Amino acid sequence: MPLTPLVYWAQRHEDIYLRVELTDAQNIDVNVNDNMLQFRAQGHGAKGQNEYEFSLEFLLPVKSEVSHKSTQRQVNITVRKEQRGWWKRLTLQERKPVFLAPDFDRWLDESDAEMEIREKEEKRNMLKASRHKEEGFVSLKTGFLFVYNLVQFLGFSWIFVNMTVRLFIFGQDSLYDTFHTISDVMFSCQILAAVEVLNATFGVVQTGVIPTFIQVVGRNFILFIIFGSLEEMHNQPVVFFVFYLWSTIEIFRYPFYMLGCLNTEWKTLTWLRYTIWIPLYPLGVIAEAVAVIQSIPIFDETKLFSIPLPKAVGTSISFSYVLHIYLVLMFLGLFINLRHLYKQRKRRFCTKKRKAN
């Protein structure tokens, strides 16, 4: 004869929870018909390994859909109430079946259950509000980054196209008037590039602060101190090579970031962004070093930015000493940035290979 297992119950305003004490239950059959739940299964219960069954006629109507989950130690059953409310007992008959007992692990009285509902609702509302706030911040951040990269891309594209067209039209002569035709736009782009240092510092973008700082400060030093402050440097061909190398790198970097804001990738552009720096970045640093070396005699002659010493000494410290130190720091920065860019490239392409495999 089938035996009856121990059954524990608890309720919420919308659900009935039953816990059947049956270990390693198999061939589980649970259904609800005419407001009566019928259960049958084989397993190890209070009377050992046997077939167990029971039936319960509920106090109030329930839905016919019933869900159950079997674990190694028990069978958990969930029944949905037809109408939301709190029952004074589980079964239609007033006398409780001998195999049925309260599940004190889940037992709540009506006031506690209502408090639980309110807490869940508050957590749900807080989570929803935080998600909306986060989504709003993410969309605002994405929009800001997209516009910034677009503006920089347009600026450096104008520089690159203008210099290329002038080179084809005027040939070698275009090398000597680059500063006068391009400098205004380059000044704007490089001043705006300071935003990248702030983005890295405050975590707007996930990138290293030091490599970004080195690149932005290094370029602005060349642009404003070496080129901008010395009229003698305005007509030097080195200006052309510095500007052309900078713009060539950036016309691939900024559109890559723009597509990243849209969660889109163009494989050719990705490859160029992580590869073109290999020849261009060292060439750019070499061109900047040439510009610094060419400016040293001019600073010595003009005494510009020289540091005056007391009258008793009767001389001043030439800014060229700073430039000699800067040359050393420049190549140290080159090593740091090359190492950073190599790690970025390796992480990007090695991760893709692992995903492909």
TrEMBL record:
GO molecular function: very-long-chain (3R)-3-hydroxyacyl-CoA dehydratase activity
Main localization of the protein described in the UniProt heading: endoplasmic reticulum
The CS domain, residue ranges: 2-91
UniProt keyword rRNA-binding, yes or no: no
SUPFAM superfamilies: HSP20-like chaperones
Homology family: Belongs to the very long-chain fatty acids dehydratase HACD family.
Protein's job: Catalyzes the third of the four reactions of the long-chain fatty acids elongation cycle. This endoplasmic reticulum-bound enzymatic process, allows the addition of two carbons to the chain of long- and very long-chain fatty acids/VLCFAs per cycle. This enzyme catalyzes the dehydration of the 3-hydroxyacyl-CoA intermediate into trans-2,3-enoyl-CoA, within each cycle of fatty acid elongation. Thereby, it participates to the production of VLCFAs of different chain lengths that are involved in multiple biological processes as precursors of membrane lipids and lipid mediators.
Protein name, entry field: Very-long-chain (3R)-3-hydroxyacyl-CoA dehydratase
Organism annotation: Perca fluviatilis
